[in-house]
Amino acid sequence: MNIEEIDTKPFDGQKPGTSGLRKPVNTFLQDHYTENFIQSIFDAVGVQLFGRTLVVGGDGRFFMSDAIKIIIQMAAANKIGKLVIGVDGILSTPAVSCIIRKKKALGGIILTASHNPGGKDGDFGIKYNTSNGGPAPEGITSKIYEHTTTITNYKICKELQNCDISKPGSFEYDVQGKQFHIEVIDQVKDYVDYMKSIFNFSLLKDFLSTNEFKIIANGMNGVTGPYLRRIICDELGASEESIINAVPKDDFAGVHPDPNMTYAADFVELMKGGQYHLGGAFDGDGDRNMILGHNAFFVNPSDSVAIIAANYECIPYFKKAGLKGVARSMPTSAALDRVAEKLGVTGYEVPTGWKFFGNLMDAEKLSICGEESFGTGSDHIREKDGVWAYLAWLSILATKKLSVQEVIENHWNEYGRNFFTRYDYENVTSESGNELMAQLRQSINDSSLNGKEFGTYTVKNMDDFKYVDPIDESVSEKQGIRIMFTDGSRIIVRLSGTGSQGATVRIYVESYVTDSTKLKDDTQEVLKPLVDIALELTKLKSITGRTEPTVIT
Predict the structure, then answer these.
(1) Residues 6+ apart with CB under 8 A from 313
(2) Is the sign of the CA dihedral 497, 498, 502, 506 positive or negative?
């Protein structure tokens, strides 16, 4: 088979973020656009790719199949030795990480825009993961971007454009004297086998065999459906009614695949009916989760990671290995810090982005971690893992024989409660988002807010979060504005990079309460005074023109 070199020119804006390159589908449909970015990945990684293995898969969204065909043709032309691909290209992001590590691959390419909308009018994304199974660090993503700005041609073997990946099998091709292999694997087997080694499936199956406890899992028409069916129905013996929206669709059946109280409102209503005692919803690529208890009792993600850590001995994987340490992203509430202190383990505060957890895991400093953005995980892989989080909660309930609400309220009674909320203002203009952040940074520079009183709250200090990685000493600056108050309350403001266009302003508000008479108070009522202060300090309405958030978590 022959290799062609196709002339091309750079496209503006092909800069991958923490979660890869995300753009509207129409952007990727431009001639040479996808090919340019794939070639830039190969060029950035360099000659170490020659003859090595890459894992390729995605969440099934629109354009994924075409993108995989492009990757196959270009991988062969760039002397990659082998591609491992899920049947029909379907692999969850956690599964890709698992398979990279199991097969000792050089890395992987994940085709997803995660929790962003799908379909032809939705978003698409391409992310490169390294040999540890986690997202590429900034050093590699910067190299990828540099190549996108200077690219003049890409290599492709068009004779491979019709490879059949519809069923498991192995294929071998001669591409100008070099052997090129494709291994098509069962979408879920490796991941499910791994989960069986982490959790006590016999305990969970026995627990679910009782009629008193019913579970339900919502795949939201994303990638997790096949995994949920294999685990919940085939392995744990639950009925087919225990999983819904379990067939991956390229447009997620019109559902916004973001598992939160706004975009999964129909699931929340279902849980309010009282039929189920544990509910879980998962995003497009399977790395995010929302946990609900009986009558839709909401588990805040900041609480979720803290409670999993506090009950780590309910999970055989951790009971055997112990807890090395815990970590949270900076905007996530400090609930996990209080668990770390009591357990006598180190707690780390890192910028938003799973790659920061990966460094700590690789250095064996970290076992359990999480982000308030519905991401929870551990060192079993190097990505957040929605199905893992669901099984972790099921393990806690099966061990303690308590309800979700009882587990949470017991935790609050023991540790106090970090009331927490997040306001998302999606698709504001980049200009207004940058203006909002600039004026806050000016307040840091001139210390104008230090000591200022807002009712019962007094500003202690402000900063722009800076992180020095304790493993490689790399520095990450301007990771979010923190406004700290004398009573321990916090307001955090940052721009999110997970959207495909414009900017998302995220405002996080947190207040710690130990008064037992107030632990069950309504979150939004408790935090309303701080939310009002945040809106005043950010000047959000006057700068962005927005009067209401898109999503409140």
Answers:
(1) 319
(2) negative
Q: Which of 302, 326, 331 is nearest to 467 (CA)?
A: 331
**H helix or E strand, kind and range, residue 291:** strand 289-293
Whole-number Å distance between alpha carbons of 319 and 541: 49
Task: Give SS3 for 91.
Answer: coil
Q: What is the pLDDT of residues 290-332, one digit of tens each?
A: 999 999 999 999 999 999 999 999 999 999 999 999 999 999 9
Query: Torsion angle of alpha carbons 130, 131, 132, 138, nearest 10°?
Result: -30
Q: Which residues are catalytic?
A: 114
Quick: pLDDT tens for 211-267. 789 999 999 999 999 999 999 999 999 999 999 999 999 999 998 999 999 899 999
- Which residue's entry shows tokens 């055997």? 320
Q: Which residue has the tokens 């940058």?
A: 434
Contacts of 221 (CB under 8 A, 6+ apart): 245, 247, 248, 249, 252, 253, 255, 257
Select from 249, 363, 374 the least CA-distant residue to 303: 374
Question: Which tokens hold the place of 292?
Answer: 């609900």
Residue 249 sits at φ, ψ, to 5 deg, of -130, 145
Rg, Å, the chain Cα set? 23
